[in-house]
Here is the input.
Amino acid sequence: MTKQITTILFDCDNTLVLSETLAFEASADLTNEILARQNVPQRFTGPQLQAEFVGQSFQDMMKSLAAKYDFKTPLSAAALQHYASMEDDRVIAKLAQKLTPCDGANDVLAELVRARRFHLAVVSGSALRRVRVSLEKAGQSGFFDRDEVFSASCSLEMPVSKPDPAIYRHAVRALGRVPRECVAVEDSRSGVLAARGAGILVVGYTGCYGEGGEREEMGRVLVEAGCAVVMEHWREFAGCLEGIQRMVEEA
Here is the structure.
C-alpha cells in the first residue's frame, strides 16, 4: 500500500482563479431572464446566487429553481443544455475580460512544476471550455497537461455536479492513480464532499472569501465537510501538504 502523496487535484473556480463572483454576475442576468419567461417574480443578484448555489452546475441550479418556483413550462433536457450553453458564453466573455488568479497560486504552481515531485491535474465542476479559458487568462494553462483538466460537466458520460464524487473518481482512474495517493484542493463544501466521497484527502482554501468572519466561518464549514487542513493563503500550501503526508504515513 502506497504511503506517498503523488498527485494534487486542484479545483479551479475560486481555488486557482477568482472567477465565482464574475461568473455569478453573468449567471444572474440569464437566470432573471429565464425567471421572467416563466412568470416568476423572484430576481437574483450575483451574490445571492453564489450564496445559494456555489459548486453547482448551471443546469442543476435551474432544476432547483424550477422545482422551487414551480415553472409553468417544464425545462426539457434540450432547453437545459441550450441555457447552459448561453450561460457558458456569457460567463466566458466576462472571465476573459476580468479574471485574475488567486493570490499566490501561480507561484505555488510554478514551484510544484519545477520540483517535479507531484503530478498536477484540475478537477472542476465547470464546463471544460470555461475552465480552459480561465486557466489561460490566469497564466496557468502551462502548468497542466491539456488532457488532465477534468470537468464534471463535460468529462463524464453522465454529467453530475459536485458534491457527487463521480468527477474525482473519474480523474483518479484516468490518471492511473488510487485515491490514497491524491490530495485535492477545494474552496467549497460541495467540492470537499465530492473529494472525500472519492476517498481523497482535502486541503480547504478560504483565501477567496472576505477577510475576517467570512473566512473563519467558511473554514469551519470546510472542516465539518471533511477537510484535513484549511489554508487562508497559497503560501501556506507547502506546510499543509507536508502535514497531510505525515497523516498518510502514520495511518
